[in-house]
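fyi for ur records
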Amino acid sequence: MLKMAKWRDTAWKDVICGIPQSAIEYLMPDLAVDMDPAGEIRGIPGMELFAEGTDSDIGMREPDILFNIPMPAGKSENVALFAEQEHEPSADLPRKVFDAYIRVREKWRQRTTCIVIYTGGSSNVNTYAESCYGCEVSMKFRTYYLPEKSADELRADNHPFARVLLVGRLSLDAGNDVKLREKYATEIMQTTTENAEELFILDFSRRIFRLDAPEISDKLKGEYKMLTLPLEEYRKQIYLQNARLEGIEEGMEKAACSMLARGTSLQEVAETLSLPIDRLQQLKRH
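which gave:
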């Protein structure tokens, strides 16, 4: 979102959606304590908070992720989560968080909170305020400012989501240095176990360190590919679950678009979601 490259945005979104319980526990421990332990955190896919084609929506974006959090007594609350990997301060970020908050409250009429994982040039992005002839509006939201955390601090933290943040922190340190990207990617790979959460984290590191780039060694690419093969089955289940939440036809098409954008073949998408090839070809063109 904002100035962040789309591939980074998608990588952060996928890993958080893949391990939402860990993300909420780590980023919002107070909320994790209050939520219903028997409930399931539900990611709300394909949010359309802004009407298309209106002047007021120019430059606005929806949150990277909206989670619906189960609370006791059958209640629920929303968490709008943004991941912003930038190297310069973002003057627009507070306004965009505020805009998203208002639209979530308007659409679902539920208590809502916002949190931003931010890697930009300034930590001072957690407050939005405006005034207009005596009308004062102010909003303060939670921000996890990654540059304030050292890599060693995150390495020493055994929580699964700390490893996600470690990958993000190391990617900032590596920048465009190919040798450092390979070094840090190897570190993450060598400390990864083969459970579902770790596989999501490993795939996140593959994407954040840009291991598909031609300058990265084929040996490292091959090792990552072999280790992350089981992840595709987890992803398929998530696509199907999200599709059912949105309604069969519309949900399946949105799931198909996500898979195609990630480079999944037409044949594999068709087999996974039971959609005709000709419809998938239409979706791919658009």
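The first strand starts at residue 42 and ends at 43. thats all i got for now
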